[in-house]
Design brief:
147 residues, alpha+beta, three-stranded antiparallel sheet, 4 helices, DUF6461
């Protein structure tokens, strides 16, 4: 079933985005169709408690966001709208993976650098569902205005 058949024109809603989940290797992933809840630091921190989490985001500017959190802390973050500047508690933790991909502080990021980083550093891939695998989808609630 196509998501639009079930969710209609709310699929790309930025406040209550539709999210689809899956598993790839040791990672469980969630794909937000229209929102950016996964980039929210409070959400990402909570999701990474006791584990690690990676958030990737793309928009039409074009820009990619990357955030990596471990144990409730944002460890590495950057976006590609301007020359890359690392943020986070340990912004150079992934340097060994970033530099060979052309992700260098102060320089523009290569077109597919963020996706390549997710694959090189974590083995992450969003793959089609295999035979017998299910994908679950649902709408997220809006984020609270103030925390």
């Amino acid at each position: 079933m196509d998501l639009e058949d079930y969710f209609g024109d709310t699929v790309l809603d930025k406040d209550e985005p539709v999210v689809t989940t899956g598993v790839d290797g040791v990672w469980t992933w969630a794909w937000e169709q229209g929102g950016s809840h996964g980039l929210d630091e409070a959400v990402l921190s909570r999701v990474s408690e006791g584990t690690e989490a990676v958030a990737l985001h793309y928009n039409d500017k074009p820009m990619h966001w990357f955030k990596y959190a471990v144990g409730g802390d944002i460890v590495v973050g950057f976006h590609t709208l301007q020359p890359v500047e690392w943020t986070g508690l340990d912004p150079h933790r992934l340097d060994a993976f970033m530099r060979p991909l052309g992700l260098v502080s102060g320089e523009s990021a290569p077109l597919y650098g963020v996706l390549a980083l997710a694959e090189a550093a974590f083995g992450l891939r969003v793959t089609p569902a295999g035979e017998g695998q299910e994908r679950w989808s649902g709408s997220l609630l809006p984020l609270p205005a103030e925390r």
